[in-house]
Every structure is written in C-alpha cells, then in structure tokens.
Give the backbone structure.
Amino acid sequence: MADHAAHPPDTPRPGADVTLTRRAPRGAAVAAPGKDELEAGRLLFARECRFIHGAQTLDQLPPLGPPELAFAGRSNVGKSSLLNALTGYEALARVSRQPGRTRQLNFFDLGGRLRLVDMPGYGYAQAPKSVKADWQGTMFGYLRGRPSLKRVLLLLDARIETKPADRAVMELLDRAAVSFQLVLTKCDGLKPPALDAKLREAATLARAHPAALHEVFATSSETRSGIPELRAALAALA
C-alpha cells in the first residue's frame, strides 16, 4: 500500500472548474459546501484508510462497526479510481484491466470513522451467469440486512447512456429501502454543455426512485473535479 503521507488527498487545482460538481433536481436550490464542510471532508479523508476484510457470502461479513458507505456500479465504471481519489491513495482499491474481476465485498476502514465498501461490479456481459446470480443474491442480502449501511453511492459513467442494469439496481435499492445517491464518473470526458445535460438527466432519474437522494455529484478521478465536494457530503455520515 502506498504511503498516505506521500499522497495527501487532492484539492482542486487553481482554476479548476468545479461549478458543475453538485446539482439538484431542476427547481431545487442546493447550497455549495462551505469552507468548514470542505475542511471536515478533507480531514476525514486524510485519515489512514486500510483494507480490513473481504466477503464473498453473507456469513463472511465482518462484525458491525462504524457507519458503512457502499460503492456500486457497472463493471469498469470507475469505482476503484473514485475510492483512490477520495482517500488520496494511489492503489487503495486495485484498478483491474479486466472488467468484472471483483467477486467480493471489500471493506476499508477510514480512521475508525467510516467503512468504505467496494461492491462487485454488475452488468459485465462476459461475466458467468453464476456470478450475475450471486450479485442479485448476496449483494441484495447485504443491502437489505446491514444495519450499519448508511448509503450507497451508485456510480454512472457520464460518457454513456444509463443501462438497463443500472435501472434494475436502482429498483433493487428501492425494494431494499436503502438510501442511495447517484455519482457521475469520468466527467472530464464531457464538455460543459454535455455534462450539464447529463446532470439534468441524472437528477430526473433520481426523482423517479423513492430511495434516491435528489442531489447528484459529477466527478473526475483524473482531474479531481468534484472530489472535495463529495468528501464534504460524506463527512456528514461519519
């Protein structure tokens, strides 16, 4: 694991455009995080973060502890890259060259304040049917029955259309009554007008699901756009 002190959490580069990183549904006003909120997020994610447990079945889940924040999304959506960007580590979560490789729930402890849970990707066309069935079974069991799970961040690739698998998982989260929030990834691949349209589309989608928070985040693990704002929002869960 990389030395955390050598890779402190990133802050926006001078002149970086972060004006599109937080959006609410049309007609709803959401205040940008203040300096104190941004600082709280920075301090939280500056804490040591380490892998503590992996679970492939429900009986392998670790004992309950700090609030848990789960990261879900289609294979290759950028979950590992987002986790690395949030924590400031270069390889806290491994970025696989083979989509759909992750087969278990990976738990990371963030300074004893939060547990970050990297969920297996879904929707990978070449994944065996047994793996897809396991996601529906084990993952739904975790989502529905984990008291310490406070929120799911559902990641969507901003560059492509929302897939049927994404919509199916949103319906699953509705049924499990688990609060979730949409986070757009790889937003550096879009020009501002296209990103603005994607944010509006995501906000409309969120409004259609009772378990979804209406605020949508736009992020880039490459430019770190939106990362400080997302940290600030997540710090409130700790």
User: Anything to note?
Assistant: The domain at 20-235 is CATH 3.40.50.300 (Rossmann fold).
